[in-house]
Amino acid sequence: MENVQYAEELVREFLVFRGFTNTLQAYEAELSTEIGRNFEVDKILDLVFSVYIPKYQLDRLLSIFSFLKQCFTSPADTVLYTALLKLEQSVLRYYVVNALKSGRQEKVVEFFSASGSYLMQKREDWIAWFAIPYIKNPSLDPQFRMYFSKEWSDTLVLSFRNFLSGIFNGTRIPALLKISTEKNMIKCLKSDIKQLNNKLSELQALLEVKEVELSLLRRSGNSIDSGHKNLLKITTAGSSADGQASSGVYEESSTSSIQGVDSHTLSSVKSRDEKLCDSSWMSNAENEQILVTEEDFPEVKVDFQVRYSLSLVIIHLRGFLYH
């Protein structure tokens, strides 16, 4: 309802702005009839069967059908348009029957006088109805008896209800009503955006606090890491110094021991080597001497044989004397 009122105010404002005074008067007159009733089926039925027909407001009754034809049907849609024409014919016949039941034959005559040409142009089955004001008991006439029954009137109201429900359920929302709806939607979106901006500001402030805390934690972590590294460096330096000192002592002791061993060993080895060298030299000298003696000095060879023989004799004599 709020959207409809807003759209009506927009139309009224536009007509005043353009100076369409005659149109504005007709618009105000149409609004007073409340045609359409915001597309509420029950209110439209109440308007037709409780206001227009009992009060013999024929012009407004015809205007509501003109409104339905222009806004919700077209001759191209033959099924829907034909259904609306048949429904209009039945409602107008109910208008005549209601006037006859109320004893208002003048309203029936007035009805045919005002709408006779319109009815005869498109509905040939209305010819018999032009004589109904002049029939004494039309409710007993076989041709009109059915229209005076309660079953027929109830069926007419139900058919009209179903028809209006069908066309209103598939109705496209007018653009003016969309303007109001979009306005309300934009208002809601602006409110949501404002709330989201406030929430974003809070989250940004919280994020800045967390970043400061994180930077402090990183600094403390870096200082702890640097302290550990310095401690490891000091420990490593001390252990390397101790290792160097022990290695130095070991090397010195090893050197001294090696030197002690080497001095003794070298002396013994040296004396042994000297002996070996002397012996080898002597043996070589003897060999050389023997070689020289045997080959180059034959006279020495005789003297050696004599001496060798004498030594053998002396050995034998000593053995004999001991025995």
The helix/strand order is HHHHHHHHH
- Measured distance between first and last alpha carbons: 168 Å
Give Rg in angstroms.
70 Å
Give the total of beta strands. Answer: 0
Largest sheet, if any?
A: none
Low-confidence stretches: 245-297
Rounded mean pLDDT is 74
Structural class: mainly alpha
Total DSSP helices: 9
Strand content: under 5%
Range of helix content: over 70%
Q: Overall 3D geometry?
A: rod-shaped
Organism: Aegilops tauschii subsp. strangulata (Goatgrass)
Keywords: Coiled coil
Domain ARMC9 CTLH-like: 62-168
Protein name: ARMC9 CTLH-like domain-containing protein
What does this structure look like?
The chain is an all-alpha fold. Among the domains are: 34-172, no CATH class; 178-224. Helix content is 82%, strand content 0%.
